[in-house]
Amino acid sequence: MDRLTKRKGFSRELDLSQELGYSYIYDRLAWFENEAESLKADLLDNDLKHIDKPITETDIQTNIRVALSDRGCVVLRMQGGKFRALKSERIVSSGNPSGVSDLICFTPSGKAIFMEVKTAKGKPSKEQVQFIKVMRGMGFVANLVRSVDEALALLEKSMG
Hints:
The protein is of the alpha+beta class.
């Protein structure tokens, strides 16, 4: 049996199963069921490792993007940051200017919502607060959100 399980090529194993009879097939099925149970246990253990970890801003953003997309919105995550150029070693800024909201949501009704995502204890920068004020002044819905519920409430506000 060990010789058979080490062979590559499932069709060859099927050919051999005809020679060995149905007991081989039942043995293989039992092996697959055992592997599936082991995999489920590993996945559960892995999920439990994350329970005590605090939720990050990226986690919140991802959950918001999924929830809004499920409601027919198009959601863009605005990226930005700084890095050191390899040859010159100078610091280069990429992406959007400082302060631009983390998420821009385009609703099915044709409106844009700007969302600055923060954790429960996170605080927006001066640039982020200023950006929200400017967007509101231009007639857009813009706000700080800390959860999916707050993002959905902002979506409802923009629709009504």
